[in-house]
Description:
Elements: E1 9-11, E2 18-20, H1 23-52, H2 58-68, H3 72-82, H4 86-111, H5 113-132, H6 143-162, H7 180-217, E3 270-275, E4 282-285, H8 286-290, E5 295-302, E6 313-322, H9 323-329, E7 343-348, E8 353-357, H10 358-361, E9 368-373, E10 376-377, E11 387-389, E12 403-409, E13 432-437, E14 447-456, E15 462-469, E16 475-476, E17 478-479, E18 489-497, E19 500-510, E20 533-538
Parallel strand pairs: 3-12
Antiparallel strand pairs: 1-2, 3-4, 5-6, 6-9, 7-8, 7-12, 9-10, 9-11, 13-14, 14-18, 15-16, 15-19, 17-18, 19-20
Helix pairs in contact: 1-4, 1-6, 1-7, 2-4, 2-5, 4-5, 4-6, 5-6, 6-7
Amino acid sequence: MAGVSEDQKVSTPEAGRPVRTPRPVRAPLAALSGLITGLSALAVAELVAAAVRPEAGPVTAVGGAVVDRTPPWLKDFAVRNFGTNDKLVLQLGILALLAVFAMAVGVVAARHRLVGSAAVLVFGVVGAVAAVGRPDGSPSDAWPSAVGALVACGVLYLLAGRLAFRPSPAAGGTDGSFDRRGFVIAATAAVAASAGAGGLGRRLNASGAAEIAATREDIVLPAPASPARPVPAGADLRIRGLGPFTTPNKDFYRVDTALVVPRIDATSWRLKIHGKGVSRPLTVSFDDLLQRELIERDITLTCVSNEVGGPYVGNARWIGVRLADLLREAGVRPPSKGGPADQIVARSVDGMTIGSPVETVMDGRDALLALGMNGEPLPFDHGFPARMLVPGLYGYVSACKWLQDLELTTFADYDAYWVKRSWSPRAPIKTQSRIDTPRPFASPRAGAVQVAGVAWAQHRGIARVEVRVDGGAWQTARLAAEDTHDTWRQWMWEWPATSGSHTLEVRATDRDGSTQTDQRVGTVPNGATGRHSVVVAVT
């Protein structure tokens, strides 16, 4: 029969002539078998990952590899449009592609069982290579993807077999039917087993995370030898629409590449300090750090991905050890005093590397190896058990989280993670300001309107903030009391608003006399510039 493929033909006992089989019933089931196969692969991989480490799971490993290879412009697009949900969007995208791939493999397997089953191995190879190839990868990280793929091969082979057409005793062909009952039983069993394996994997991962969380809860931070001074009474203007001076931990921004937040047991954690110019290499434990002289400081952090007027800036009270003291104990000297190393490469447990200038860290500012944040041990999201902080530098060149290694080297000899991806090796924070209220497109009433926001120029301090309306003359805003030159500063200007559409614009001047430029530049390669403005419709 013209237009009918061989696997569409059946022979009737009466005439022995081929007729078209009901393929619309079989094709969706073939695609479903592929989806069940993918589910099996992920579930088994998650169970195995619980025995290896959560970061070795295939979705996390492939997602991490994608993040590592994402060009700066695309990373900026993701942060700008999805914010802290960028990782969730990435993982959902990977799962969607996996689902399409799995359905296609299922359809292929319905015709060619061995070819389809072998194609599943591609899933295992991609996941295994991605896991082992991560900066913190090891050969054992290949096991979750490999075992998941092997089990999935068996599942697909079994399901595809139940979809095979039955032979026709009368004509030596097929009778157009397949083992529907057998397919339903096999598919149900596969789904149930996958759900069980995935559930057990999640439970084991959750149990391990809970045990580590309990060790964090048991930590009591000692009173600092050098406490932060009380925040001045006038530092927080307490204006509606303006955030608090101190950012709560739950609201503090998070921008990093970790798809799975590392959960580190502080009792077994160690930090190594070594490298060029280190005459006395150090290895310190968390308890060692708690026994040292601790200092407490208010410091504002800023992410280099923060667009003009963006949300990726926050202020917290940190407690930790002076990083310069640790370096001096290791025998490190800054370049200005003859030291051979000009870069500290901080390494995270997830393989992230961040390079900071030795001279800046040791110039007397409160560069910290932070252990606590706003009165409690560091949250896991923000680097527990220890992270770096260097006031005045963007986070990508100073604020390594989940720290485990500090290597002294030179900028000429080593490019850290973001430098390899077109970002500048050195990046002092630029003077910036932001209007928090009124919000864009707000409709305040005519009359006195409070225009307020924050400005920052860490380690220089804010000297003046000005606001103008519709490109007119600049008006000086009232500054809140200054906490330190390492923190942001709130400001407010009372605007005699008139009816109509208006554009409000803000600029700040730091204590070095530098005024925020109006030249708009993106975040790459060392931070955005420009002035923040909002449009409002006064009624």
